[in-house]
Amino acid sequence: MLNPFDTPDRVEFRKVLRNFVSKEIMPYCNEWDEEGRIPWELHQKTGELGVWGFGIEKKYGGLGMDDCFMRVIFNEELGLCGTGGVSAAMNGRMISIEPIQRLASEEIKSRVLPEIVSGRKGSSLAITEPSCGSDVAGLTTSARKDGNHFIINGSKTFITGGMTSDYFVVGARTGGPGLEGISLFFLDADTEGLQRTPLEKKMGWWCSDQATLYFNNLRVPAENLMGDEDNGFISIMENFNYERLSLSGGVLGMMKACLEESINWAKERYTFGKPLISRQVIRHKIADMSAKIDAVEAYLNQVCWLFNNGKKPIAEISKLKFFASKALEFCASEAMQILGGAGYLRGNRVERIYREVKVMAIGGGSEEIMRDLAVRQMGL
After folding, report:
1. pTM to 2 decimal places
2. Residue 178 half-sphere exposure, CB side, CA atoms within 13 Å?
3. Phi, psi at residue 141, to the nearest 5°?
4. Is the pLDDT of residue 133 over 80?
5. Residue 269 contacts by C-beta under 8 Å, 6 or more apart in sequence?
6. Which of 103, 137, 138, 320 gives a 20 to 30 Å CA spacing to 364?
7. How do residues 314-332 score in pLDDT, each as one tens digit?
């Protein structure tokens, strides 16, 4: 579908990324998926493209500009490889970079942002806990003031990049229950009192490390408090907007990969003396997949335009997130039906994407949470 929002810069950006993905990622992503990790060199090669510098000032290693269309293009092109774990492993840093720039001290920003943006170091946002995910207001990890330090106790789980990150942005309760008692802290991974264990045997995102973090009387300097005490909830929720937009971009790339694999197979595969593509039922499946791709892409473009024009379209992002993940579920299922037994075998994009459907639907806020948030934004 022709994109009315394309510009020469965006078109060129997509070309650079597609060339990079085809050479540096696509040939190896199945191998990485089976191994359960990606090489750290890929972080650094990707960082050289500047893709983690959107919205980051140049003095911190960023681009000094932002463009939501380019953010989505980056995630879409990664999605085309059909391995969600590659994107998750590298982009876990994205949801921690923005709050570091906006809320951390100048010393922390100058020290860590150039390292993270370049891909030399990793960072993660640590919010989800064993007892609460999207219900951020229910988190129980505590931070108690002790002189010029805070003492943190508790645990986090499903933390993307948790085993390899060098830095963490941690949400902890400094006040009473509910929304107003939460604060954010910057934490170096080698701080005494932090223990991390991997979450293994996952259904999807095989090559992305997820971890559970344990804080045992961990002492963090008071100057590592990010923003005002007891005022971290809004910062967390605003940060989720970019995460959900990025995930939707990745979903679009996966949908396009499903369509591409389906068309290629239907052209090559013969049944009862005729190519599969000649069968009306297959043609209808391909038409339906293509229509859903167009709808998600149009929705993404609208949300990106709103972002670029200074809006905070929370309801639209919420609806986009669940609309896109349901469309991916449809496309992955139809692609699997078209490929038949060939799609069921490990080692192809359709099989990998089929495994990723649920994590793309749950990560960043489940479909049910997104629907409820959208309705609440409607004042209901």
Report:
1. 0.95
2. 2
3. -55, 130
4. no
5. 275, 276
6. 103
7. 999 999 999 999 999 999 9
